[in-house]
Amino acid sequence: MSIQTILQDLKTLKKITTQPHRILAETIISATTTTTTTLPTVLSTLTPHTVKLILTDPHIKTPKCLSLFTIITQNPSLIPFNIHIEHYATVICRLIRSKRFQDAKNLVNSLANDQNLRYYVPVPVDVPVDVPVDQCFNSRIVSKLFNLMFKVYSDVRKFDAGLETLEYMRNNGIEISESMCLVYLIGLMRSGRFGLCLAVLDRMMDSGVNVSAYTLTVVVDGLCKNGEISSARELVERGMRNGVGPNVVTFNTLVDVCCKRWEFEELELVLELMAKGGVERNSDTYKFLIDGFLNGGKVADAERVIAEMCDKGLNAEIHLWNAVVVKYCKLGKMECAFKVFDNMVVRSVVPNAETYRVLVSGICGIGETGAAKELAEKLQRKGIDLGCDVFDDLVNGCCKKGEFDDAVGLLKAMEKKGLFGDVRLYNMVIAGLCESNRREEAIRLLSFVVKCGANPECFANLVNDLN
């Protein structure tokens, strides 16, 4: 290294270390680490231009820059001017460049909550932003700054300020982050501002923001929970026209709410839109449809859907089939119930004990007690447990027809299985035995019921008759 080079380096170093704003910065730091009272005096000499020189000086490291700015902002009464929003922006951008994102977020949060500062759109949209563009920050840093500001406004529920920031970004070609917009949209929905939420999402799509199916689904879900099903469906339609592809989760959200609210006309529009978008129904879609149709009294539609589900190779679980059988049995349409049962067998769906119990109870419900008992006997021989409810239905059917011998036989069968039926049914059987002058059998049955824990007061009238 030549003597001339060494001398030039020494001159450069002297120039760096003797800059007045650097000396002032060192003095401020020193004043906070000593017991002297020079800090008020030093801060009183600051000017907006001096602060700008300190904050933008690359020779003052970012951590020290942040410390200096913190000292200045924590002592507003000691400086003869108000801190400008450009000062905040400069420090935030430096922090972002240094990947100190949490510090940057904290500073943005302070800025958003400072009532003495304007919203972060310091100049009209047709005038270049003074900071950070003139500080030679690249577009990526500028985008991070604005998106971070946008998120903080969302966090502190300053939605109008957030919207102003978003508009500024749109009009100045600053890249908009979808994830930050999602935070804003969720905040709007939680605050009940669904109209603004829809407007913002439309602006995102118009601005070329890559809106994902996830973001679309989040907004659709929020609208559906608020009862705005038509608005949610129309949003999906607009999204499809703008190249935002809804997925099966998006449509399932709509299908589910339509089925739960029995909005079947709206459901048809959703299913048409789903087919138009080329989105295939999955198992969840079919389950929502089956539950909705059954609860809405459209049992035939539920039966059609479960058959379609099987035709597409999806696993239609046995409880779905049983739910259709139950509905037909409750409606007294046993022919339809057995048709579903036959369809199960054809499709190699193995009926379980619940399927048979439902059928036996259904047959009892239409007064065909003999056929019900015959089926029950066959099932018991096959080792299928009927359960207490089915026995109760059989006993009830026998009592209504005056077939007390059969009723007593069923109660004895229950005893052997360790089952105890409804007290009301025992009352009916004992009363029937009394009327048939079968007092001993009535007394034995009454004794059994009381031993099983039944309240004797329930049989007070029968006891008087027996005595």
What does it look like?
The protein contains 26 helices and no strands. About 6% of the residues have low confidence. It is mainly alpha-helical. The longest helix is centred in the N-terminal third of the chain and has 17 residues. The N and C termini lie far apart (129 Å).
Question: Care to give the gist of this entry?
Answer:
The chain is mainly α. Helix content is 70%, strand content 0%.
The tally of strands reads: 0
The arrangement of helices and strands along the chain is HHHHHHHHHHHHHHHHHHHHHHHHHH
DSSP summary: helix tally: 26
Kindly name the structural category.
Answer: mainly alpha
Strand content: under 5%
| Unreliable residue stretches | 9-17, 118-137
Shape: elongated
Percentage of residues in helical conformation: over 70%
Task: Report how far the terminal alpha carbons are from each other.
Answer: 129 Å
**pLDDT averaged residue by residue:** 79
Major sheet: size, sense and barrel closure? Answer: none
Radius of gyration: 39 Å
